[in-house]
Amino acid sequence: MTPVADKEKLTPPKAGALDVLKVTDSRTGKEYELAIENGTVRATDFKRIRAGADDVGLMVYDPAFLNTAACKSAITYLDGEKGILRYRGYPIEELAEHCRYLEVAYLLLHGELPNLPEHEEWTRQITYHTMLHESIKKFMDGFAYDAHPMGILVATVGALSTFYPDAREIHDPELRRLQIHRLVAKMPTLAAFAFRHSRGLPYAYPDNDLSYTENFLSMMFKMTEVKYRPNPVLAKALEVLFILHADHEQNCSTSVMRAIGSAHADPFSSVAGACAALYGPLHGGANEAVLKMLAEIGSKDRVPAFLKEVKAGHGEKRLMGFGHRIYKNYDPRARIIKKIADEVFDATAKNPLLDVALELERIALQDEYFVERKLYPNVDFYSGIIYQAMGFPTSMFTVLFAIARTMGWMVQWEEMLHDPEQKIARPRQVYMGPAERRLFPLEQRKASSDQLTPCNWKPGQKTLGAA
Ligand code: ACO
């Protein structure tokens, strides 16, 4: 841009879009107008605000993307203040009540709910791809008996890319669709195989007569019977849980999926990365952490003492399954899960940890610490209690999340590839390390602890010389 005018317009507003943000740069006294579009200003507009000729321009500093929209998306709508979640415009409550997981998966992918013939064809496509290459079993066998199934999932889903080299053809719409079918179909099989490996059980192959969730239960729990007959209440509950986990806009693992995908990696490798992010206890790993926490508390009477410890920990010790970056109200998914818990417990034995969880929620929601910070139960608070009652070991909880979220990752990945504004993801940084310094030959150097490496250097400190 030519010399900065006294009053400069950046990204001139389009006809009809008249909202502007007016800013004054105190360094130069110049005023700027930045166009406001969809409640955002463009971070690149700030680049043109410079203090002088050799200034590279202003950047926006936003560690952990607390207030940065990285894409435009038409998939999931989330209002964290009001506790609203919608997929393609449909409220999550209605989808959970009236649809099955594969219907919702179709909705996410196609933007519309399927009619009967479309649903049949879609189900046929997914069912067709449930088998795994036999060599995947050898991969599974190589893991230690106590390997965490999420670790196995991360590795084996990434390994699938080597079986499907056509997955690299990410610009071919038909091949892209094929990989989406493969991934949605094979994730439950990989997950169930990982579980069976940990138990030393023979792998149970998919049963294509069963629905998506029934087949998963069959691959998990089938023993010597010729045909596994899943409990319909549990299969239905799993449908609901999968629907609730199917997408959640730009969360940590989805952002990873988009970031890896933006480098044009194949979708199997990108999903491996997304799974790795999900594995973390602050994200999808929280459901496992909640159960460990509830077991550690043990009984209702110990809840107040536990909450006291959390509050004294000042963030070091957290109430797992509570709090959310976006929801500053009750997570609508947690409300739905709480409702289906009773149906599940009627079909199984009641999980004794439910009482501890209810008491924890009751006290926390009245406690000033949690009220002030708007910390409410999130999706992970009650999901684990149900999964445990259904017979899943805690180490499988995040795996269940990954199966359901695969659809969301795929749809977000495709949307990113179609978006003409997207490029390879590459954030900027504010460099805080040493300025250029002199390098001394090995024999003349001080002990590294006395040198100013980026690890022991403090902002403002001068660089050190030789010994
Ligand atoms: N228990 C106790 N205190 C908490 C909790 C919690 N679960 N969550 C946040 N806080 C406190 C923080 O200590 C901080 O307090 P401070 O202002 O006194 O420093 C304040 O609330 C804000 O917390 P942040 O960490 O800044 O919030 P952020 O949006 O970065 O974190 C997160 C969100 C990671 C979900 C957080 O609430 C958390 O760690 N929760 C527990 C883990 C969990 O349940 N994760 C699952 C999230 S849902 C999902 O990913 C599927």
Your description of this structure?
The protein is mostly helical. Helix content is 47%, strand content 6%. It is built from 18 helices and six strands. A hairpin with a 4-residue loop joins strand 4 and strand 5 (84-87). It is globular. Bound molecules: acetyl coenzyme *A (ACO).
The small-molecule ligands in this entry are: acetyl coenzyme *A
Note poorly predicted spans.
Answer: 1-5, 463-467
Supply the helix-strand structural class.
mainly alpha
Strand order of the largest sheet: 1-3-2
Question: What are the defining features of this structure?
Answer:
three-stranded antiparallel β-sheet, mainly alpha, binds acetyl coenzyme *A, three-stranded mixed β-sheet, globular, 467 residues, 18 helices
Concise synopsis of the structure shown:
With 467 residues, this protein is mostly helical. It contains 18 helices and six strands.
Topology record:
Blueprint: E1 7-10, E2 20-25, E3 30-35, H1 43-46, E4 76-79, E5 84-87, E6 90-91, H2 92-98, H3 101-110, H4 116-128, H5 135-142, H6 149-163, H7 173-199, H8 212-221, H9 232-245, H10 252-262, H11 267-279, H12 286-297, H13 303-312, H14 332-347, H15 353-364, H16 368-372, H17 379-389, H18 397-418
Parallel strand pairs: 1-3
Antiparallel strand pairs: 2-3, 4-5, 5-6
The structure holds acetyl coenzyme *A (ACO).
